[in-house]
Model the fold of this input.
Amino acid sequence: MNEEWLALVEEDGRAYLLQRGSGEVRVRGLGRFNVDEAIGKVEVGDSIKIGQKILRVLKPGLPEARRAMKRRAQIILAKDSGYLISRMGISVGSRVLEGGHGSAGLAMHLASVMGSRGTLISVENRPEHALVGQENMNVLRDVLPEFPEWHLLHSDLSECKEEVLGIVPELDAAILDMAEPWGAVGSISEILRPGGRLGCYCPTSIQLEKSWMACEKAGLSVEWAGEVIERRWSKASRGGVRPGNQPVGHTAFLLIGSKLGIPIEH
Ligand SMILES: C[S@@+](CC[C@H](N)C(=O)[O-])C[C@H]1O[C@@H](n2cnc3c(N)ncnc32)[C@H](O)[C@@H]1O
Done:
């Protein structure tokens, strides 16, 4: 039985995940301290002071694990992860491939909805990125009530078809987030089940266009392409709520292709 994880949360939402029994640690933003002295006797809901910071002790879930996660490669944010998951019909028991795995931003969202009956296969070709993603997933596994069967393949996405088929007979969904997704669209779409969906996360319009063409060439029907725009609101200083001052930023274009099965002969 693993020791309990707790989230220490600042007033602005910044979170730190600590595991009871960890002893002396150095945490970026909190400094060096002894975990067991700091949180040994605290309970969920308590407030504690570490250095000059007052922190609320909470039971961590996906939002806290995301805020506290280690990062190396750029991550897919909640607005895009959530949209892809819903539109692609990913849920409990799904068989999903995702890559590049990077820091596991998307994989953490996927794992949180797939339950213990789901199978998640992550692919990453850079060991130093895979290591960061794996660390984040290991923490999440301890934090979530259920976690899918998870495989991390250290391979190239365009060459992993046989390895994937050694784990699942077919895929319900695949999401590609890499510089050149079109290079993997053909081989991955071959192992999608009829009705399965392939999503591409494309920061630039050239990536979107090339992925679109690759999907059509692979026999997928493009179901949805576009971007999800998020505009946050805040409390105005003189009362009321209004759109905040921060700009509406671009993350990526999303493309969702669906495998409709064998083309009908007319
Ligand atoms: C932007 S990051 C992925 C971020 C991840 N989806 C997340 O939400 O945290 C892109 C990753 O794709 C990996 N990558 C690029 N080309 C690849 C390929 N052909 N096969 C496997 N991984 C690849 C890179 O090493 C990098 O870690």
The chain has two domains: 5-60, 69-259.
